[in-house]
Amino acid sequence: MRFNAYVGLLSLVLLCASGAARPDASTSWSPLVEQKIPLFHDLSTVHPGRIDNPGGVIELEEMKSMRGRIGDWLVKKRILYPQQKVTLRISGLHGGACTKDAPADVAWAFPEGHYLPPRIDANTDTINIIAWRSFPVEATVTCAGESAETYTTWVEVE
After folding, report:
1. DSSP state, 94?
2. Distance CA 128, CA 60 (A)
3. What are the phi and psi torsion angles at 5 (to 5°)?
4. Are 129 and 85 spatial neighbours (Cβ–Cβ below 8 Å)?
5. Per-residue confidence (pLDDT) for residue 21, from 0 to 100
6. pTM here?
7. What's the confidence (pLDDT) of residue 92?
8. Mean pLDDT for each 10-residue chunk of the chain (158 residues)?
9. Cα 138 from Cα 134, distance rounded (Å)
10. Of the residues 51, 57, 68, 118, which has the maximum number of CB atoms within 10 A of its CB?
11. Contact between 153 and 137 (Cβ < 8 Å)
């Protein structure tokens, strides 16, 4: 059997460029959620829905590409999906969403159809997501002695 060096090299480049989207050493202890990639390429488009995030309670703390230079180039050519690490945080739990020194419970939820789990009861104000497609996120914040408040925002993955 004869080995075709061009095909082998191309396969190696694609394998290295696609890279496994795993958190690096800078990832905090916050829970990691991975957006599942469908078996067949999803050509549908997603549009932002109703956004209810007064005062920016859910803020995008960090978004960075999980691919290298070659992988980013292949994303621009629409050969690969983008893969980005997105860190979301509830800002102002003590001062904005909750009064000072009041313990808070946070439940994160994702609407159906965005390749994310429906709910994450992580009870933390920060969450990390490995994403390839834009998605909405909903956070329900329950402060001690107060009723639950739900905030919704849209995360745009480029």
Report:
1. B
2. 10
3. -65, -35
4. yes
5. 46
6. 0.68
7. 65
8. 61 59 52 79 66 76 85 85 86 61 78 82 82 87 80 84
9. 14
10. 57
11. yes
The two structure tokens encoding residue 126: 């920060």
Which sign, positive or negative, has the C-alpha torsion 37, 34, 155, 120? positive
Q: Are 136 and 154 in contact (CB under 8 A)?
A: yes
Nearest CA to 30 out of 141, 142, 124, 119 is that of: 124
Q: For the stretch 113-151, what's the b/e string if a residue is b when 16 or more beta carbons lie within 10 angstroms of its beta carbon?
A: ebbbeeebeeebbebbbbbbbbbbbbbbbbbeeeeebeb
Query: Strand 149-155 and strand 58-65: pairing?
Result: unpaired
Tokens of 42: 């999803």
Sheet containing strand 84-90, edge to edge, reads: 32-34, 126-131, 84-90, 58-65
Tokens of 12: 């190696």
Q: Are strands 126-131 and 32-34 parallel, antiparallel or unpaired?
A: parallel
Alpha helix positions (H), 29-133: 69-76
pLDDT at 115: 79
